[in-house]
Every structure is written in structure tokens, then in C-alpha cells.
Amino acid sequence: MLRISNHYVSKVVFSLLFIEFLILIGSFYAGAAVRFMDGTEFLVPKFDHFFMSAVSFAVAIIFSMSALGMYQLDFDEGLRNPFFMKLMPSFAMGFCILTLVFYLAPDLYFGRGILVLVFLISATGIFLARIVFFKTSEIGILESRILFVGDGALARECGDLARNAKGYHKYDIVGYVSVPNEQRVIGADQVLELREHESLRQMAERLDAREIVVAVANRRGGGFPIKELLDCKLHGIQVTDAATFFERETYQIRVDSLQPSWLVFGGGFDQSFGRMFMKRAFDIVCSSLLLILTFPVMLVTALAIWLEDRGPLFYQQERVGRGDEPFKVLKFRSMGVNAEKGKPQWAQVNDPRVTRVGNFIRKVRIDELPQILNVFKGEMSFVGPRPERPYFVEQLSEEIPFYKVRHSIKPGVTGWAQVRYGYGANIEDTVQKLQYDLYYVKNNSLFLDVLILIDTVKVVLFGSGR
């Protein structure tokens, strides 16, 4: 994994994206070369911005492919992956984006003749690149050999996670090393024994293990091999603890066995002036653009809500914001007029309180658009944890460790948990969403905010997420 602005990025996905970006740039020049075989047209003034046009084309297509989920890989499906069926829709979406770019910056326009050729060449290039990529994965080049220290329940959970990590890594688990004072739950055939006079480092080198994951729940006592792990690290073998492994592979921070010291002494949790300034600027710019683009949609939505039951267009509800401060969130009304009377209830899939118009605007997130005003007022950010009602905050804070950590930053209109997890309707779902929220609170950055916006586009298009 690479770390870009504290966020974990798969080396495999990053490499594929980089290769496809180069293919798109190269296809642009190849299309122009085919269109003007003698090359004389490249000398005229209108091609002064040709490189910027190529970059604009590549960025638009990469954005569209990301928004349609083409970089969420599944090696087991390989060439049968349905994302290949999204290649043409991605190019159609990219064409729409380029149309807007050319309208705003006419100098970047390069002609319909070149555009058709560029699309054909780049689509062929990307398709061939994916064939080579997945065929390469079948022969194990992308696999990483991993060794676990520990043979208890935590080690088994980490092993299951590595074994099922289909999308971004392919792991070859070489085995588990037992430690004293831990109840074994791993099968004896998977537990490795050190040879006579052999160290942990020598075992790892013999088995060609590139990474050691320390999955030991209880590290107290004299049996924990801290010196041997240090020796492994000093000789170039990556050593990772279970909490970091879980964070890296799931983009969550596990709460059921999390030690406060890991949060205190670990990296992240950037609350500097520079980060806060950049986040506020990002909030204002994105909210302003979204308001301009969606204003007609908001007018139609308001009319549809009024026509359905002649009730109020909006509803305000108290939510908990940064520093546990309450505020009133503004949304389009998606439930019946009296749906919120009485004891607060969890939202549910196919909630009977939701109106027909409300069901649609929830699926495509239109009901969230009025929260733009909360962003302008500074009560919310564009990206952040979902704000919850005080009644549930009090309940969840007592039942779930570290729940209030999510209130160290402003809540958001969209967020990491909302785009990564499905509908939440109980405590178990709330724990899963909290683990995504904690990841965002710890690793939030401008880069991660942009990724969440791209994922939000995918959620709106396909109706997934929360």
C-alpha cells in the first residue's frame, strides 16, 4: 500500500490508474497524428494548448471511470468483471464532462474528427491493458507473501481478512507463528515451528515472507518476541500490527480491540490551521458549485413534495455537531408530515414512513441538498461524518467505544461511511459506519475529500451507500 496524504492507496490500483492515464495521453496524440497524417496542422496556433487538451481528456475519463467503479477491482472475477461493461458508459460520461470543459475553456477544444479517433484508440488501449493486467494477476506476480505472529482469535480474523482481500491485494499466507499465553484457534497444520537455532527473521527469509503482521491480543509477559520483530524490521521485512493491518485493508479503524495508545501515538488527526483553512475553502467552493448546478433540481423537488401531500417542503431536526454542539440540520422532507412524532426511530430500508417522492430523493441524495445552507453557516462541512440526533448520540456513546471521537470535526453532507457502507438500521451497522468515520477523522485530507466526492457520484448514479 502507498500512503498519499495519510490515506492508504493500493499500489496495484495506483499502478493501473497511472498506466491508463499514460494510455489516454498517448491515445490523444495518436488520434491527432492519424487525423493529420502529414503533421502540418500541429504547427498552427490552435494547437498551442494541445497538451492541456490531452490532460483534460485524460482527467475527464479517469474521473468517469472512477465514478463508475472501474478501479474497485475483483481479481477472482478477472476478465468476467462487469466493470468492463462500464467502459463505454465511462467514456460517455467523460464526453459530457469534456463538453462542459470546452464550453468554459474554448481554447482546449480540438475538433470532432480528433475526438472520435481518440475515443476509439483509448478505449482499445484500456481494454488491452486490463487484459494484460488480469492475466498477470493469474500467475501470482501481484501476490504478497505474509506471515502472522499469533495463533488466537485476532490472528484468525486478520488471516480471514487477508484471504478474502480480493479487490486490492492478493495475499499468500505462509502460516502462523504461535506465542505463549494465547489460546490457539488456528489449525495445527497452519502453525509453523521454528527450526533448531532458527530466529523469526531467518524463518521469514526462508519462507520468503515480505511482511509480518503481529496479531497478538495480549502482549504482556515475557513471551512476546519484540526483539526478534525489531531484527526483522532492521533487515527489510515489513512489520505491521493488527490495528494498522485492519485500517489498511478495510479503510476502517477497528473499535472492539482498539487501544487508546494506538490513537494517541499514531499519526493523523490533523487539526492544524492549514488543514482547517483548506477544508473551509473546499467546503465553500464545492457547496457554491453544487448550489448552482442543482438549483433547478431543487425547485422541481420542492414542487413534487408539495404536490404529493401539500405538506411542508423542508424539515429541520436537531443534530450533534463538532464538539457535541447541537444544531438544526435542514433537509427536503422525505417522510410523512407526522412521521417524526413520538420516540425517535432508526431509519430503515423500505421505511413505511417515507413518501413516494421521498423514496426517490433519498436514493439519489436530493434530500440532502438543503444542507448546503448548513455548510455556508459553518455548522457542517461538505465531507465529514453523518450528524446524528442527540437521543441516539447519548445511547450510542454508552454502547460503542470511541463514538464521540467523530465529533472532533464537523459533520458532513457526504462522508466516508456513507459512500462505503450500506443502509444502517441498528447498533451493528452503526459500529461498522463508526469504524469508517474514525478512519476519516484520523486520515482526513483534501485528497481523501476528493475521493469521497468521486464515490458520492457513484452512489448517486447506482443508488448504493447510505
From TrEMBL:
The chain crosses the membrane at residues 12-30, 50-71, 83-104, 110-133, 281-307. Residues 279-461 form the Bacterial sugar transferase domain. GO terms for cellular component: membrane. GO terms for molecular function: undecaprenyl-phosphate glucose phosphotransferase activity. Keywords: Membrane, Transferase, Transmembrane, Transmembrane helix. It holds the Pfam family Bac_transf. It is a multi-pass membrane protein. GO terms for biological process: colanic acid biosynthetic process. InterPro entries: Bact_transf, EPS_sugar_tfrase, Sugar_tfrase_EpsB_2. The keyword Membrane applies. It is found in: Membrane. The keyword Transmembrane applies. NCBIfam families: EPS_sugtrans, EpsB_2. Belongs to the bacterial sugar transferase family. This is TIGR03013 family PEP-CTERM/XrtA system glycosyltransferase. The lineage of its organism: Bacteria, Pseudomonadati, Pseudomonadota, Betaproteobacteria, Burkholderiales.
